[in-house]
């Protein structure tokens, strides 16, 4: 092997070693619990908040519970708990925290659920005609009444599905098997379709 070939070989080996070391250092940095928690919060806190606000209709509580859920996610990361799906994990914890909060208030039997106004407003066309506006308003009211007529479990599964969770992730959140979650989601969609049919 010529001297230039030997030098090139060692240069490329040194470059590959340096690149691997840099990648390992970057991966170690990203794996710090504070960094992971921050990334997960930015990626998933909106979904957790919308789920809680939509299912329970209590935006102030939803905001506090979302923050508490991600604080617990950070604590789990510090304790090196293996978390397969951070979004499903945070939703599960947030749901349990909200249920605990409601139990402590002794208002489970009297609470009402409404769809958050900002969620309904987000589907409105940017430049509707007056007729479209009226029709849309009637559809939103009908949807709100239809959603309030669902059971708590149906609302929880439906809102989680609307946030993009898989049926398996929803099952982890509401503590049901995959088949049961699929039945609940399908039944709630059929119920809504039946109630919204003119």
What characteristic shape results from the CA principal axes?
globular
Q: Total domains, how many?
A: 2
Strand content: under 5%
Structural class: mainly alpha
Largest sheet: none
Low-pLDDT stretches: none
Q: What's the order of the H and E elements? A: HHHHHHHHH
How far is it from the N-terminal to the C-terminal residue, by CA? 83 Å
What is the residue-averaged pLDDT? 77
Q: How many H/I helical runs? A: 9
Number of strands: 0
The gyration radius over C-alpha positions equals 24 Å
Give a verbal description of the structure.
This protein is an all-alpha fold. It folds into 2 domains: 9-111, no CATH class; 114-198, Arc Repressor Mutant, subunit A (Orthogonal Bundle). 78% of the residues lie in helices and 0% in strands. It is built from 9 helices and no strands.
Keyword list:
mainly alpha, 198 residues, 2 domains, Arc Repressor Mutant, subunit A
Break the fold down into its secondary structure elements and pairings:
Blueprint: H1 3-30, H2 33-56, H3 59-78, H4 86-105, H5 117-121, H6 130-148, H7 152-162, H8 167-174, H9 178-196
Helix pairs in contact: 2-3, 2-4, 2-7, 3-4, 4-8, 6-9, 7-8, 7-9, 8-9
Task: Provide a short characterization of the protein structure.
This protein has 198 residues and is an all-alpha fold. The chain is built from nine helices and no strands. The chain has helices at 3-30, 33-56, 59-78, 86-105, 117-121, 130-148, 152-162, 167-174, 178-196.
